[in-house]
User: Fold this.
Amino acid sequence: MKRKRILKNFIFSWTVIILLGMVILSAGAQDATVVYTEGDVDIDHGYGSRELALIGDPLQNGESIITGPVGFAELERNTSTTITVEPDTIFTLEQTVEDGEERSVMRCTLGSVAYRFQQIRGKEPYLVTPSAVAGIRGTEVIVTTADDGSSLFIVESGTVEVEAEDSRVVLEAEEGVEVRPGERPGEKFEVQRGGIDFSEWREARREEFIEDPVSSALALERRFSGLIRKVEELAPVYAENKRWLEHERELMKKIELEKGTDAKWEYYREKVYPLEVDTHNAFITLRYWAKSAFSLRRFVLGRMYLSLKTSYIENLQDPKFVEFLEVYRRILAGYEDKVVPRLKDGDLI
Amino acid sequence: MVNKRIGYFLVVLVMLMGFGSCDMFVNFFGTTIDERIDSFNDDAKAGNYSSMYSHFHSDTKERDDMKNDPNTYWNTTPMASENYIDSYSVSGDTASGKLKSGDTFSAEMKRDGLDYLIYQMDFGTGFDIRRIE
Assistant:
């Protein structure tokens, strides 16, 4: 009887150890892990691949969590960051390069995401919405994005710096700010914990947009113009780096013929390798801005169009809708012309 | 009696799981770290950019980029400068060594079943590190 109990304990202990080991090994490799889901929650892997999110699934750079009307998910990152994704939300993990260093980006394209950062290793991530970018310092923050691309940042603890249209607002605990697309952050306001009904705020933004769609579309056009400017600034930098890299590689081959292999590799270290790194960084940054514009087009502008068409379905000749369509088509033309060539086929699926 | 049999079965199962993680099985049936690094290097030398993604673990973040746009991806790496792996040694799950240029590289490997795949690679030294991840 006693031997049996010892054997049982032995088997149980080893099974637990092995399972724990497997969990720890798999958790260390990914950017975030889904620790809880409820209702409709999908992981969009990019390149057209989307599947149901399950507890324990990893979420990596470039991947999104998409929750349905009753979907809810919680993610953990490095055991020190908790990300709560509310219903009807699109949350994406990305990365960009700033001053030669990679920075993690957490994007809330639509809906509401709450972040709790207990301890951050390395550079702090950026929290991005269609209308603003926020830097954080030891923080609990809730980010909500409305259908028209407006966003609301509410800080529960720590400090958040919200930036939009080259203007910054620093939020401390129990402070919030609203940012509309293409506009500077609004006046910050005080907020008590749990004092804001985010669904009410989103609905109010939606009603305002239906009432005055042209203003919302023009605001979004300003935001698009800003993103296209970034793409246009970086595209020639990347093209020039690429061209220069090819030129230097040819030169390297000539040096080998004329001065030998050692001279070739010395030239590689001095000239070619730094250029490889710069070209890669330019590519990553260019892609980041192009994908930001894509995200705005797909999830914000696309939804705006659908919502408005549904609201004006009985009178599509209404001047408000007609004027909105003009701005909408103008945005699409700029997007197709300047952004789409910078995206890959897989990004567009 | 039945409980005893289940007990033996579980012991054998646990032992098999333990043995399964041994390199002995990888050596016989899977791809070792050396084999993986060598075949990655062979593909790089042959300019087979479109198949190089297959040496990387599915957890590697940039694997989709390697697969879907291999020329753009590999063009900014030392491989496109004909700077291949010259020599290396393996310690644990990491292969590290030198490139043709004399610069260093290290590759963190990760198992998928019985196959070792590259999870992350660092080229260069000091602050100027080009990471494939």
